[in-house]
Amino acid sequence: MIDLNLLRDEPELVRESQRLRGEDPELVDRIIDADARRRSSLAAFEGARAEQKSMGKQVATASADERPALLAKTKELAERVKAFQADATQAGNEFDELLRQIQNVVEGAPPGGEDDYIVVREVGQARDFTAEGFQPADHLAIGEGLRAIDTARGAKVSGSRFYYLTGIGARLELALLNAAVDCALRAGFTPVITPTLVKPEVMAGTGFLGRHSDEIYHLGTDDLYLVGTSEVALAGYHSDEIIDLSDGPLRYAGWSACYRREAGSHGKDVRGIIRVHQFHKVEMFSYTTVEDAAAEHQRLLALEEEMLALVDLPYRVIDTAAGDLGSSAARKFDCEAWLPSQQRYLELTSTSNCTTYQARRLSVRERTESGATRAVATLNGTLATTRWIVAILENHQQADGSVTVPEGLRPYLGGLEVLIPKA
RNA sequence: GGAGACGUCGCAUAGUCCGGUCUAGUGCGCCACCCUGCUAAGGUGGUAACGGGGCAACCCGUUCGAGGGUUCGAAUCCCUCCGUCUCCGCCA
């Protein structure tokens, strides 16, 4: 939810943001109309209600003679109050529904759609496998050779896009996630293991129930949603609270399973564990002041790059175009690692600045020096996911099917330096 | 799953049986000021969020776990739901 005052004072700014996203700019004007209707009907209701309350007091103190006449009047007034209230409630609901449709106001993201990102920087050097004299295998072939990834049995038991991580595969994931938690701890984040089932209002509050709601698993019997990221649970953590940011941002590192339906991605990344229905992730989540949000966004990006350096992957950072932003994000940076088998980049991390959008929807506020309350900003960013295994196996593979363990990860694998294929 | 108790403005609690004087009282905490040579103590006042109108002091409305209902009027009566606690059952 965006700031209503911004929409009133600078409607053109919001219209332009909607255009950049490829969304309807006229929604802004429909909201302004709905706001006017809401306010006039609210004034009518409140006036009638005030009258009703004061007459109620007269009834209480009236003598037995006066009472019948007063009661007749108040009875009639009660009808009017009820009607006015129904109008006001309806106008309020219409207004809320429209306001919730407006996506966050874009801040600095390049215009365009999915392919219109800007490459911020490229880091590290992709290996030249031709010069090394062998064809790089894909992560699944390597993983199967190591007895680390089993997609066949995953499909047998749970269906397509499910998998088992076995032996070194399981250890590799734990190592990565533990390294991510350590990275977060060093940076002052509080590690949190979150719920992965959340209520509708929390899912809606984070902005995931809009256009892409078919991406989300819903348990109808219990009306609960399976989270696609611990961001959801961490955003809900301080919902309906007034938090204290006077000592700096509140920073959490969520560890959770993540569930995604992957609707509409049929036939895409079907091989291996690149695009799966369930995976694990360590996710950073910060609550900051509005003023500090952009700087915090850079801090989260820096931590993501620290993790990528730890596992020694070549990658690039992209500034996502406005049309490819989630509805909550004002700006988003992705880190994409090089994928030798496919000669392309693969998204490993994503960090979004949601400014006050989620905080307004979830009612997370802070108290300013003057004693007033105002919405905080929220940001999130990936520190490690199961998918990282893909890039690690492929980039550190050797001609004989073994994989060199990146130095930064060795302490998390008991000093193991190389992963050897099993016969 | 069954039975019971409870949910009030930061915390604690009064009010609910018997609807109107509740504009929700009190204590603690917190803030400001006053007093006492320091400390401690004491005194006075203030102390929720959200929304609407002036856009400043102020006025009005909503909110007593949530949502419905009864009533001229609901913290108070009725219904449904949620949560917490205690006991029982079941599972681990």
TrEMBL record:
GO terms for cellular component: cytoplasm. The keyword ATP-binding applies. The record marks 382 as: Important for serine binding. ATP binds at residues 260-262, 276-279, 347-350. It is an enzyme of class 6 (ligase). One of its GO terms (biological process) is selenocysteine biosynthetic process. Pathway: Aminoacyl-tRNA biosynthesis; selenocysteinyl-tRNA(Sec) biosynthesis; L-seryl-tRNA(Sec) from L-serine and tRNA(Sec): step 1/1. Keywords: Aminoacyl-tRNA synthetase, ATP-binding, Cytoplasm, Ligase, Nucleotide-binding, Protein biosynthesis. It is found in: Cytoplasm. It comes from the Bacteria. It holds the Pfam family Seryl_tRNA_N. Catalyzes the attachment of serine to tRNA(Ser). Is also able to aminoacylate tRNA(Sec) with serine, to form the misacylated tRNA L-seryl-tRNA(Sec), which will be further converted into selenocysteinyl-tRNA(Sec). Belongs to the class-II aminoacyl-tRNA synthetase family. Type-1 seryl-tRNA synthetase subfamily. This is Serine--tRNA ligase.
